[in-house]
Amino acid sequence: MTKYDSSKYEKPSVTVDLVIFTIQERDLKVLLIRRGIPPFQGKWALPGGFVGIKEPLEAAALRELEEETGVGDVYLEQLYTFGEPKRDPRMRVITVAYYALLPWSEVVGGTDAREARWFSVYDHPKLAFDHDKIVDYALERMRNKIMYVPIAFQLLPEKFTLTELQQVYEVILNSTLDKRNFRKKILASGLLKGTRQTRLEGRHRPAALYTFVPQDLGA
Amino acid sequence: MTKYDSSKYEKPSVTVDLVIFTIQERDLKVLLIRRGIPPFQGKWALPGGFVGIKEPLEAAALRELEEETGVGDVYLEQLYTFGEPKRDPRMRVITVAYYALLPWSEVVGGTDAREARWFSVYDHPKLAFDHDKIVDYALERMRNKIMYVPIAFQLLPEKFTLTELQQVYEVILNSTLDKRNFRKKILASGLLKGTRQTRLEGRHRPAALYTFVPQDLGA
DNA sequence: ACAAAAGTGTTGGTGTTACACCCATGT
DNA sequence: ACATGGGTGTAACACCAACACTTTTGT
């Protein structure tokens, strides 16, 4: 790094791409955009865009997120940087991928004119570029993370039932969990505070509503 | 991403930076380079350099690694991408950080002319740029990873004693471990195969030598 | 009364921690 | 004989997995 003059070298383009997750209808959804221009015209792809020359990476990711979803204050985490020389056939593009978790209750339309749709993570069309790989990577990261860090709450509204919370885990892990063990563990964790409210939904016993209690960031 | 023409935009420079770890004298060491030119002239910094326009990111990291250490076939993992606009005072530089684990037995000199030295991770000078943050991040990542994934072997020669292995864990975690529990767990894991050899070192009972048995990458 | 989802405990097994002494060698 | 690090087992506890019935509501 010391002996190079960067101006002598051709520079790659740098973009951010976003894997935006939400949960709807007991399914894990990812937001995709239909490409209007080549390459991969007509194909679905992750939302993303170029990083401004004075723009922090995370700011670029947040900007794209807000353009596509209209939502600002959500969980956002850098995932991985993909830089294969041929991943974009036109030119060298290095992309810093992020993933975001969005409560279904906050999903509104984006302001952007591009065609956007939510697809099941488990059933979506083949994507442009290496975006299938990026989605797989995001899913794997999220599955690991949810075992240790309480990120599931980022996909729920402020108040939720234990069954809803369990469904978040089940949909992400793509497996079923034991109801009694799940409730025992989650209640023992101290992450939840019971509101004194219930929610009545259908002709059966109403469910108790809980909220997430923010952690001391034991630093 | 669809409606921009990248050529209209100024592009950032992209570099890779490496946190190269090894273990010597029961201490965790990191390789640093003394900067010969501004900015931060005379300061110590992580080895790194620009990514070639047609060069994969990992290839750039491996190239730097080999230039500095003369070693090729080691553990290398992408860490995080740092892109604060002002992290390099001269211009916009986005750096993709990697970390590498190097067996102390393979440490030779680099071919590069720059002044390089191994420093204790727990006692090193303040570094140039945001490199202190990168080292901290690498250490944190490695500490998490070693709990789940057998990366400790990447810091040892092919044959090693259980005490040496335990010292690797202790130096990385910066804590002491119980000898009996450590041996019980590591032997039960099936990661080790006993060679039938021992090593005699000092006036005490010789230690049994083990090798790492490569895992099925359960894909 | 019945259909539907909410809610609730116990048991066996597995893994983790804490802890102290004998062994093989060189001098 | 002693100094040095190598090597070994057990008991208490915490955590995890398996498993079935009762409760509350709307119709």
Q: Can you walk through the features of this model?
A:
By secondary structure, the first copy, chain A, is an alpha+beta fold. The first copy, chain A, has four helices and nine strands. Chain A has two domains: about 140 residues, Nucleoside Triphosphate Pyrophosphohydrolase (Alpha-Beta Complex); about 55 residues, Arc Repressor Mutant, subunit A (Orthogonal Bundle), CATH 1.10.10. Chain A is about 25% helix and about 30% strand. In chain A, strand 1 and strand 2 form a beta hairpin. Chains A and B meet through strand 1, strand 4, strand 5 and strand 6 of A and strand 1, strand 4, strand 5 and strand 6 of B. The first copy, chain A, binds a DNA duplex (27 and 27 nucleotides) through helix 4.
Radius of gyration from the alpha-carbon trace of chain A, in angstroms: 20 Å
Q: Which class of secondary structure composition applies to the elements of chain A?
A: alpha+beta
Characterize the quaternary organization of these chains. Answer: homodimer
The CATH level-2 architecture of the largest domain in chain A is identified as: Alpha-Beta Complex
Largest interface: A-B, 41 and 41 residues
Helix content of chain A: 10-25%
- Beta content of chain A comes to 25-35%
